[in-house]
């Protein structure tokens, strides 16, 4: 039995986010009629105190424990991705587990139906063999922070190639066909677009053709190297964008969550593109932000996609094309764009899902907190909008209490990791998520 069988509309109205004063640390965000604070919570899908990992054999589990290749305290999920197959109501759910440091047996997994002592079991994807070299074999996966599944059933996997900033392999991009598990595309980044021992590639965004399954460009965020790499798929060429707008901001290097704080100094982390359906109304843009910043940035997509503009080590290239849309007052981690142009992000303070309509100015009165949850949205590092079996959009979110993982340590007597979801229509209209 394959992993997909084990698995685990455009009816959305555009809502103007009207101004309504609400005293919140991050700003005076809107709670417009029908938006936010009516949806009390996202629907629970998966919760775990620590992740229950599957191994090929009990002997292999003991081997990696003895060798220091498995340390349960270092296993922290970052991203979630979801795929509905052929109208099936039950999706396949994937989770990334980056190798920030040693002790992570595999870096990409899927949720099975097997329930163990610590919860639902995860299994390596596409197979355990892809991960077990821990960077010694560059034909496998070294460390994966995020993925993107496109509408044509392909998972795009961005492998950072490093563990604890030791560059074992070049950063690389794989596309796997989810039906067969086979590789349909592979690209290794050339050395002139990344910084060995510094770069950490964390997010891929795919520019899919509006009419077929062709991918024009892939955008890859280098959070520690403070840049964005653009890959022209047809030409098999890539170039790097790096300037003051892709860097972190000194006022936002401290993250405060649930009474605890920790330091992160990360640049570009999250990106979205204007949906094809709005191309006749709006200029298509690449929206992005740095993790350690409150700036929301944008740049025309045709500028980003023009490789002749971006000269190596030229931080002034295309600088006048970047648009500072506005400031949030707090950091956002992951972000996702709906088909109607609602940009959602996992706000750090307060822990919440923030929404903004890209047709409007990026100001507090045009932003809304759709869900605020101090307990269940602590560091929402994974955020995806996918189509379910009915073709309707759903938001899926992964939170991981990273302030504890990077601070005092995770308490495995408490729930640390959560995957939650909600229909986009329900979320934007303040309806229950289940």
From TrEMBL:
<comment type="similarity">
    <text>Belongs to the major royal jelly protein family.</text>
</comment>
<dbReference type="InterPro" id="IPR017996">
    <property type="entry name" value="MRJP/yellow-related"/>
</dbReference>
<dbReference type="InterPro" id="IPR011042">
    <property type="entry name" value="6-blade_b-propeller_TolB-like"/>
</dbReference>
<keyword id="KW-0325">Glycoprotein</keyword>
<protein>
    <submittedName>
        <fullName>Protein yellow</fullName>
    </submittedName>
</protein>
<keyword id="KW-0732">Signal</keyword>
<feature type="signal peptide">
    <location>
        <begin position="1"/>
        <end position="27"/>
    </location>
</feature>
<dbReference type="GO" id="GO:0005576">
    <property type="term" value="C:extracellular region"/>
</dbReference>
<keyword id="KW-0964">Secreted</keyword>
<dbReference type="Pfam" id="PF03022">
    <property type="entry name" value="MRJP"/>
</dbReference>
């Amino acid at each position: 039995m394959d992993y997909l069988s084990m698995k685990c509309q455009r009816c959305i109205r555009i809502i103007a986010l009207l101004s309504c004063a609400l005293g919140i640390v991050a700003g005076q965000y809107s709670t417009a009629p029908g938006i936010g604070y009516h949806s009390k919570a996202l629907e629970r899908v998966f919760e775990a105190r620590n992740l229950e990992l599957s191994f090929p054999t009990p002997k292999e589990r003991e081997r990696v424990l003895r060798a220091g290749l498995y340390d349960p305290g270092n296993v922290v999920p970052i991203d979630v991705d979801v795929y509905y197959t052929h109208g099936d109501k039950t999706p396949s759910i994937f989770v990334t587990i980056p190798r920030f440091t040693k002790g992570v047996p595999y870096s990409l997994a899927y949720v099975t139906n097997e329930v163990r002592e610590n919860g639902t079991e995860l299994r390596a994807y596409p197979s355990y063999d892809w991960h077990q070299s821990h960077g010694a074999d560059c034909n496998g996966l070294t460390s994966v922070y995020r993925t993107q599944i496109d509408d044509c059933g392909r998972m795009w996997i961005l492998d950072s190639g490093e563990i604890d900033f030791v560059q074992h392999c070049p950063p690389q991009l794989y596309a796997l066909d989810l039906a067969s598990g086979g590789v349909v595309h592979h690209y290794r980044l050339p050395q002139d677009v990344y910084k060995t021992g510094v770069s950490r590639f964390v997010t891929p965004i795919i520019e899919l053709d509006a009419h077929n399954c062709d991918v024009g460009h892939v955008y890859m965020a280098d959070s520690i190297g403070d840049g964005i790499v653009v890959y022209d798929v047809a030409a098999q060429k890539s170039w790097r964008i790096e300037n003051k707008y892709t860097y972190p901001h000194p006022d936002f290097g401290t993250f405060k969550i649930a009474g605890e704080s920790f330091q992160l100094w990360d640049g570009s982390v999250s990106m979205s593109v204007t949906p094809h359906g709005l191309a006749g109304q709006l200029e298509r843009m690449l929206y992005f932000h740095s993790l350690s910043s409150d700036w929301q940035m944008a740049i025309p997509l045709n500028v980003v996609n023009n490789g002749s503009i971006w000269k190596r080590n030229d931080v002034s290239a295309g600088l006048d094309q970047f648009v500072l849309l506005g400031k949030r007052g707090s950091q956002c981690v992951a972000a996702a764009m709906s088909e109607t142009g609602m940009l959602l992000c996992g706000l750090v303070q307060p822990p919440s899902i923030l929404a903004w309509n890209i047709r409007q100015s990026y100001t507090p009165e045009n932003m809304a907190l759709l869900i605020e949850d101090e307990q269940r949205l602590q560091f929402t590092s994974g955020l995806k909008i996918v189509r379910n079996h009915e073709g309707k959009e759903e938001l899926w979110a992964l939170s991981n209490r990273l302030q504890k993982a990077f601070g005092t340590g995770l308490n495995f007597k408490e729930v640390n990791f959560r995957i939650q979801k909600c229909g986009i229509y329900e979320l934007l209209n303040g309806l229950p998520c289940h």
